[in-house]
Amino acid sequence: MTRNKLIIFTVLFLLPIIFLMLTGCATYRDMTPGTVVNISGQETKTKNLQNVHNPVVEQEIVTVQPLSEPPPPPDYIVGPYDVLSINVSKPDFSGMGSTSGSSSFAESNLGAGTQATGYRVDGKGNIQLPFVGTLHVSGMTLQEIQNRLMKIYPKYFKDPWVIVDVKEYRSQPLYILGQFNNTGIFYMDRPFNVLQGLAMGRGYDASANPRAARIIRNKKVLPVDIYELLMNADQTQNIWLKPGDTIYMPDNKNRVVFVFGASKGGGPVPIPPAGLNLLQAIATVGLQEIGYHARRVFLIRSFSPTRGQLMMIDVDKIIQGDAMPMALTEGDIIYIPKSALTTWNEALGEMLPTLSAFSAILSPFVQIKYLKD
User: Fold this and answer.
1) Helix (H, G, I), strand (E, B) or coil at 215
2) Residue 9: how many CA atoms within 13 Å on its side-chain side?
3) Which residue has the higher pLDDT, 259 or 95?
4) How far apart are the first and last CA of the chain?
5) Cβ(127)–Cβ(60) below 8 Å
6) Is residue 27 classed as helix, strand or coil in its secondary structure?
7) CA torsion angle 15 17 18 19 (round to 10)
8) CA distance 300 to 317
9) Predicted confidence band of residue 263 (pLDDT cuts 50, 70, 90)
10) d(CA 213, CA 179)
11) Residue 290 in this model has a pLDDT that exceeds 80
């Protein structure tokens, strides 16, 4: 082939390509924010990209009913380790009009004046009293203890006057832990609700995560949304506290999601400062090493301790570019089933043993809804 023929052939070959390139450049135009171009070439404008090419196949909002319990009795109930003050005497009202403002007490017929001594309730709920001996007082109000002594002391005193009070409150602890400004063990001297308990903590610092705050009772998280109570004054969340309750305010530093299921290793996956999406989280557990192709993935998302969402995600849709990568939020639980035919109930059943192993660091919603038994 001569040199001239080669030049002509090259020009003829390149002309269509140059023409297509020029045509493409001529028709290029900027797209307004929110524009989505479908595979078919049709354009759809929407303000919410999640409604277009959404990888979520199924979703369900799940709520937990708020705790409903009768209010506690208004009077203080004496319990183990309280210290009681018991005064027994015969009053002399002749000094009631004195200008000193103090009342006087006459000695009893046993020669004893006013007795004001602290009596600690032991672990069995008993106190030891002179003349009386062992007296069971745990579970009684102060008035009930006083009435009982009024029936006993006439054997030893003539017309006794008995006054019972609490010298030290030690039987109804409330634990305030986490990112509160004032933490420790506090003892309730009357019925406390959640707001009154939170007030003992004197607010929380800048590193606190009130959306994940929780109340723990008997090693179980209660269905109480502290954030909703504080920010939106939802009084259905302002339940009465019980002795031994813990109010815990976590920090916002250790943000993680959880990946379980058909993987060589699963568990917490830290969320970096730049964020984490679904594919990145799945990649961290080595699915590619076992040759598993995640077509359907289950996701549990917690909105609050009493509200969450169950989602089934089509991961293939994201991989193929038919949907935007799905950003994860703190506490998300991703479950990768071994079979594409796994249902939600089956997935939850398979997840429970693993969730139980991580129960201490899971979101309150998951602990309440799925680990309550």
Assistant:
1) strand
2) 6
3) 259
4) 86
5) no
6) helix
7) 80
8) 19
9) low
10) 10
11) no
**54-64+255-370 CATH pick, 3.40.1360, 3.10.560, 3.40.720, 3.40.190:** 3.10.560
Residue located via tokens 């063990």: 185
CATH number of 173-249: 3.10.560.10
The pair of structure tokens assigned to 185 is 């063990």
Residue 46: is its pLDDT beyond 80?
no
Domain chopping of the chain, boundaries: 54-64+255-370, 83-168, 173-249
Output the pLDDT for position 2. 56
Please work out, in degrees rounded to the nearest 5, the angle formed at the alpha carbon of residue 305 by the alpha carbons of 259 and 363: 25
Quote the tokens at residue 316: 């293939």
pLDDT in tens, 226-248: 999 999 999 999 999 999 999 99
150's CB contacts (< 8 A; 6+ apart) are 160, 162
What SS3 class is residue 143? Answer: helix
Interior angle at CA 209, CA 208 and CA 213, nearest 5: 110
pLDDT at 367 over 80: yes
